[in-house]
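User: Design a sequence. Structure:
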């Protein structure tokens, strides 16, 4: 189905902002490449879980999908900036 504006012109789809994969989240021997924004959201939720003294599944949206990571008082994770940030277009070229 093609969308049309009121004046009969073909509607353009909104321009998607290219994601910049700028950090790696290290957790449980695994590495997840993520955007800085998603890593910050994850860190805030993880810190809140630790502060509350309970374990919680914290979502992390990353380049390959979404993971629910169990975070508790003894959980270790690190967030590291990538030396060479990876764009969504570069990532698609490598995998496609």
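Assistant: Done.
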């Amino acid at each position: 189905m093609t969308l049309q504006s009121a004046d009969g012109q073909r509607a353009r789809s909104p321009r998607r902002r290219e994601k910049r994969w700028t950090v790696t989240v290290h957790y449980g021997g695994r590495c997840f490449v993520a955007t800085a924004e998603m890593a910050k959201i994850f860190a805030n939720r993880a810190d809140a879980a630790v502060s509350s003294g309970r374990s919680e599944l914290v979502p992390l949206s990353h380049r390959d999908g979404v993971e629910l990571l169990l975070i508790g008082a003894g959980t270790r994770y690190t967030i590291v900036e990538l030396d060479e940030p990876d764009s969504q277009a570069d990532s698609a070229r490598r995998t496609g």
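The radius of gyration is 18 Å. The first strand starts at residue 20 and ends at 27.
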